[in-house]
Structure prediction request, 786 residues.
Amino acid sequence: MLHGLLAIALLSQGQGTAADSAPSFSGRKGELEVTAPRLDASVDVDGELVDEVWARAVRLVDFSQYSPVDGEPAVNRTEVLVWYSRTAIHFGVRAHAPPGTVRANLADRDLGIIPDDRIEIHLGTYDDGRQAFVFAANPLGIQADGALVEGARQRQPGHDAGGAQREEPDYSPDYQFDSKGRLTDFGYQLEIRIPFRSLRFQPAEVQRWSFQVIRKSAATGREDTWAPARRAAPSFLRQSGALVGLEDLSRGRVLELNPEATSTIEGAPLAGDWDYRGGRPELGANLTWGLSSNLTLNGAMNPDFSQVEADAGQVASDPRRAFFFQEKRPFFLDGLEYFATPSQVIYTRRILAPIAAAKLTGTVAGTSLGLLSAVDDRIASRTGSHNPVYNVLRIQRDLGASRLGFAYTDRIEGGDYNRVAQVDGRVVLSPLYNLSFYGGLSRTRTGGVTSTAPIWSADFQRTGRRLGLGLSFSGVSDRFEAGTGFVSQGDLVESSIQPALTFYGKPGAFVERFTASLLGQLVWSYTGFREGRQALDRRLLARGSWRIRGGWDANLTVYQFNYGFDERLFRGYGIEVPGATGLDTVAYRPDGRIPTLAWSLSINSPEIAGLSLQTYTAWGKDLNYDEFSPARILLSVGTLSFRPTRQLRVGLQAPTSIYWRASDGSKVSSTVIPRLKLEYQLTRSVFVRLVGEYRAFERDSLRDDTRTEGPLLVQDADGIYRREGALGFDQNDFRLDFLFSFQPTPGTVFFAGYGSSLVEQDPFRFRGLTRTRDAFFTKLSYLFRL
Prediction:
């Protein structure tokens, strides 16, 4: 009894002295095989770490720095305590920091804590070195969770300087776990309990899980890891430590029922008055059944797939590329990692408003499996007379450090269908070299006409600490369709090479890391590549990337492009030319190529006095996509965040795109989308949010700039060239949304909101705004764990 009281007293000091007698595992000494004690105990998760059981937990010590410079000892001390019971695994964290440097706010879960100090725990419950559950908390215990599946996202050339960096988790999935934290005189302290019923794991009697702890410090921008991790490696997860000897784990009965009720009232002007419709409650339910420790079945009937926040507006630097929006709907988020593909042939937002859906996810005999079926509402069909049916299958298997996957999607609408089959994989050739690839075919039948088309990609990477190299070659046929996927740009072939050289500063240096990279890229239309034509676009990018002491990031890029005429942008466009009897109208196909030279600067700042900034600005000479002529451009995407208190969050975004003709300086087009978001966190589970977004778009009447100066014409539905389609216009929309949110745990929520759409004639006057539509909505759901 005396020993227990002494342990509690010493633990309450926050220095870890009482735990000195418990086994400790030093990350820097390579003691990465952790045997945590199994203790038949339960504790209240209060963030205090004073219960006697914590004196018997193992200690993880001696963290290493991963970013900005890997391999160095961590500057600030971190200690993690670990033990488990039959039903849950427990972590206690003591994070030391200089006084006044810890940043912690009361925020919404997941992305709300990204600007804060935080601890991330990666649990690879299948020990495959490829996927892991991610559980995180800031110093106040506010949660974030998600999944990390390495190699599941398509790498974009020009964005990662040779690939020597770790992939970020997808914070979309939500899991049930407990966390509490508090600020202390030495830094902060956390307590985390993760129930086994929130995990999927192997059916073995004795478990081995890959395991990593990451500490992120907002004041310095540093990332420390318990298991030392190098940037010069093909995988971050494969450098994890391990929890070994885990036995007699019980998920219990995993059976969850999540009924929900939603109601929406929508209004629009009608005959000088307002017509409101709806209001009738819509009932639905989601069911989750843990068939075993590694297989979960989800079902839904008339589920609510609405979003509580509209997608933020985006501006296009290249109109040939479609916008991508993240999945936000609860049913699809559970087990989302099992459907990840590098080519994005699986994109669940294609399923618009399903009447019923079911999915099976998990791992069988070392092979991960995701199976999804859904019946969509008729509003999602092409004709409005059939219910589209979706079937999706995703299988992946690890082959040592390498991986092989298969994906199949099927969208059926009456007698029409779209089917896609794809094989993808990643081959680790050595500690520095790896090759990723995918190849697939789509088969589509529409109106009795059937077509087959390919998609393919190969990406070779050298992920060296100092020297990086990327080589890629990919193509999407002009006839390839993905009815259940997302293809940013079809009819495309890209070839690129990207060498990168990185230099590291000494400890305490002003520039902690500098990377110089060069990207050379050739772009064809798929048809042009197949026919042996020259590349449409020839691109050369030179970039310098600086990581500056205190958590600042800066990137300066020079773009030297050479554009060829892309007739896909001007299908249906025409121009009048002199003919034998007057003016004849012909298709618009100007000759020649357009060279450009532009610059961009991006800056990401740490939080200083509650303010942080992320901005990207490009300027110089670029292509006028509306008229295929030279233009001066200004592109900007910036976010200014302000936290005047721990409860209030203010965010301002202002995506901007302006094109001026190089010939006379007249404006061709402009898009400005300022967005203001105000959030106030009343308690850990309650917040209110107000979002205002203005979309101002303007385009001048189109002409054959720098050549004939003649007006452009556009074909109408009858195939007749007319001037009307190329005349100038502007559009000014304002959207206002209010939300009250109560979410004590994932699955149990109450939302109440109002949204209004308005328009005005002149931009940013806010006088004469005319309301065009509004809506009131409520949602209530409760998670029953049976």
Summary: The helical segments are 2-11, 330-333, 526-530. The chain has a mean pLDDT of 89. The first strand starts at residue 24 and ends at 26. The radius of gyration is 28 Å.
